[in-house]
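Chapter review: from sequence to fold.
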Amino acid sequence: MNKDHGLYKFNKRSGYWDRQRSVTPETKDQWLDHFKKDEPEEHFITSKNRPKHNPLKEDAPANGAGGGAIAGIGIGGNGEPGVSPKRRINIFRRKAPGALQEKSDPSPIVPIQAVSGYSESSVKKGRFAGNDTFIVPSDTFFRARNEKKKGKHWKTYIGEDDHGMHIREYAKRNRKRPIILQCERTGAMHYARYGKK
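The token string follows.
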């Protein structure tokens, strides 16, 4: 065993001469000559225990994300599942332009007693089936009668006037009670919320 060339080095911990794992530019030719004796050069390049002088050149790594194997990381149109255009339109339609403006310009939430011009006496109440009814103007009644769309704010249906604020406070205080609206012009009634009692 020829210990003076760069194929072996002395391991102080074990006390043995070990095969050198790292190849320096000076010992590269010695390594190539040593392994060419019994193996062709292709094996030398791909062998896992030997140094790689000529690393393999490949287009993409095996675990690359460019092929679209990993969803949701934003690789192009083919690799990214994303949101379908039809669903994107539905999401935008749900969020009314008014709701988008509210996000950019939030108004502070003020307690009902601090609202100027609010008075309990201006809101008329009635009774139906053992529950309170709120007598509201006809435009508020017909707005609330329409189907509530997902994502729309309650203000678009009830409003922010005295009636709306009073109904809102009642709904917060009595979570399990129904909210019944009555049109002041026609007397028609509508459940804005069904109760749990």
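Two observations follow directly from the output. Residues 1-56 form one domain. The first strand starts at residue 8 and ends at 10.
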